[in-house]
Write a structure and sequence with these properties.
The structure is a single chain. This protein is an alpha/beta fold. The protein has 7 helices and 14 strands. The chain has a 5-stranded mixed barrel. A two-stranded antiparallel ribbon has the order 5-6. Strand 2 and strand 3 form a beta hairpin. The chain starts with 28 loop residues before the first strand and ends with a helix. The chain binds 1-O-phosphono-alpha-D-ribofuranose. The site of 1-O-phosphono-alpha-D-ribofuranose (R1P) has 10 residues, from strand 7. 1-O-phosphono-alpha-D-ribofuranose binds next to strand 7.
């Protein structure tokens, strides 16, 4: 069935609407970052650059690192932008943009996020790395899709009960990473746990400036939540949407974050750039070996 031009919007040059990319521009191993300036901080390590473009916050560069073809894309801040980025990347691989039909043979890509994040645990200090085993969606984005097959309902129920979660804010969901990519990107340098993805930076992550928040105790309830071997390690704004969409579309995803703030003890990294640069080199070396 042909997908209408109002639903999959293409630019006059045939590229997808927001990312400005055509299929030949994107590698099957993709790095997502939030900050558009982080793209160059990654690709400066490349052997060669073959393509670069930018539209709004979506900056893309494709090239090779130690011979491995990689694409780096900035997604800006938040799960809403992840909805655009993952759907448009999937379209580049799995929809014939000329006939507007879904291809018979589908392609899976690898998506690795290199992000920044706040730790919720005193023993996960600033400048450390966290690899997200699950994304905990507190933002509702994935509730627009049919996620019953990919969310862990037992974890959801336990979390809702433990936090006395107000369902007026929507039902949180827990979506797993790609175990295959986790095995390739973990090491003794990576803490592991559940990453909470919030739909905002202040109130949705329990920060109080001038506005009262719905549940001032929520962060504490989140940081002492336990489910078997799992605990919630950190907060950011993209991982659960990446995991949710990749699970549904058949792609592999893993999220790595540098901890730049520790919310449990109130500290902030003295050199967040150096800490992120370490995660960049770590991830590039791991990815080049896949
Ligand atoms: C908030 O400052 C932003 O920083 C974190 C959050 O997820 C959010 O996008 O990640 P990035 O540094 O990757 O953008």
């Amino acid at each position: 069935m042909k997908i209408k031009s109002s639903e999959l919007i293409l630019n006059p040059d045939g590229s997808v609407y927001h990312l400005n990319l055509r299929p030949e521009h994107v590698a099957k191993d993709i790095i997502f970052v939030g900050d558009q300036n982080r793209v160059d901080r990654i690709t400066k390590h490349f052997d060669a650059i073959e393509f670069s473009t930018q539209k709004r916050e979506f900056k893309t560069t494709t090239g090779t690192y130690k011979g491995k073809r990689l694409t780096v894309i900035s997604t800006g801040i938040g799960p809403d932008n992840i909805d655009i980025a993952v759907n448009e990347i999937d379209a580049l691989f799995n929809i014939d943009l000329e006939t507007r039909e879904i291809k018979k043979d589908l392609t899976s890509v690898n998506i690795v996020r290199i992000g920044t994040s706040g730790s919720l645990q005193t023993d996960i200090p600033v400048n450390s790395f966290v690899l997200s085993q699950y994304g905990l969606g507190l933002d509702n984005l994935m509730r627009s899709y049919l996620i019953d097959g990919v969310t862990d309902v037992a974890l959801e129920d336990a979390f809702i009960q433990h936090t006395n979660w107000d369902l007026k804010k929507g039902r949180p969901y827990f979506i797993k990473n790609s175990a295959e990519l986790e095995a390739k990107l973990e090491s003794d340098l990576t803490f592991k746990g559940i990453t909470g993805t919030a739909g905002g930076f202040y109130g949705p992550q329990g920060r109080v400036l001038r506005l009262q928040i719905q549940d001032p105790e929520l962060n504490h309830k989140i940081d002492n939540f336990k489910f078997g071997e799992y605990r919630i390690t950190n907060f950011e704004m993209e991982t659960s949407a990446i995991y949710g969409l990749c699970n549904l579309l058949g792609h592999h995803a893993v999220s790595l974050n540098t901890i730049i703030a520790n919310r449990a003890n109130g500290t902030f990294s003295e050199d967040p750039y150096a800490a992120v640069d370490k995660l960049i080199v770590y991830t590039l070396d791991k990815l080049s070996a896949i």
